[in-house]
Amino acid sequence: ELPESWADMQEPLLEGMCFTLKYLGMTLVEKPKGEDMAAAAIRRIVATARVGARKFQKVILTVSPRGISLQDADTKEMVENISIYRISYCTTDKLQNKVFAYVAQSQDSGALECHAFLSPKKKIAQAVTLTVAQAFQMALDLWEAAHAGK
To answer: Deepest of 26, 35, 89, 146, by most Cβ within 10 A of its Cβ?
Structure first.
């Protein structure tokens, strides 16, 4: 449930907003951003996810101005930490509207990866997307504030 004062949520975002999602998978992409690229990547991930009858990993995705961190919901083990500066795009898919995805540059290979997650509701997928957008803005504001005195 998104509060009316969505824009006034600076405080919790600094700490990190948590969402429990199911990790669908990852595919490599050629462009850092774009709706068509993301939609095609999400289609590939969803198609692959449907073929494999495995259970999806439940993760806690935490969004903050530092980036996105992924933690296994069951074991509480850290899966990945993605710096906000490596994320180039995030979206809620138009057709698969419960799917949230982001594109980030791999720390190891430098390749562009699209990661997709299934949320329980369309509203949650949208909330994750809005929260990441807000985290970008806060990271920029913090960066500008840090460099203003120079």
So the answer is: 89
Strands 112-118 and 99-105, bridge-based pairing: antiparallel
Count Cβ atoms below 10 Å from residue 32 Cβ, excluding itself: 13
Query: Average pLDDT in the 108-128 region?
Result: 94
- Nearest one of 81, 33, 67, 62 to 135, comparing CA atoms: 67
For residues 118 and 99, is the Cβ–Cβ distance under 8 A?
Answer: yes
Report the C-alpha gap between 39 and 122 in whole angstroms. Answer: 16
| Nearest residue to 133 (alpha-carbon basis) of 65, 32, 35, 33 | 65
Report whether pLDDT(70) > 80. Answer: yes
Strands (E), 30-66: 57-64
Separation CA 24–CA 111 (nearest Å): 19
Parse the chain into domains and list their residue ranges: 6-142
For residue 10, what pLDDT band results from cuts at 50, 70 and 90? low
Query: pTM for the complete prediction?
Result: 0.85
